[in-house]
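In this supplementary section we document a worked example of the pipeline. Step one takes a protein sequence of length 136 as its only input; no multiple sequence alignment statistics are reported here. Step two produces a three-dimensional model, which step three serialises into structure tokens for compact storage. The input and output of this example are shown verbatim.
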Amino acid sequence: MKNAINAIEFSHGPCHTEVRLTKEGPKIVEINPRLGGRFISKMIEDSIGINPIKEVIKLAMGEQLELSRKPSTGSAWCAITSPKTGILKNILGTEKVLSSLGVEVLTINAKVGNRIKKPTNNGDAIGYIYNWEKLS
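The serialised model returned by step three reads:
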């Protein structure tokens, strides 16, 4: 990744990079001068105690950055998708998901009666789950 970032002569600010693991090895999907979307900034703050949004603002203002890692925890998010195209008939199990260990956020964007489809891109998710394990 360093070679790819150097190739586009990027040297200052946040850089969101996505890599897909393939049978042929890792392949770079995206390199952009921005913070990651969805839950990425939240994951960084929850996992290592650094708020990337605040730090980018400090960087832009020429202020001293605070990049000391705090004790690490784990965090993850996943998209909720449909295995097939059709009409959403019901939504079950939200209470069970929310009561699961570490689940902090459950977002359902689709409503009963909406047309949903088997995903072909990131916009086809019907919801998201964010999970974070806090340190005791």
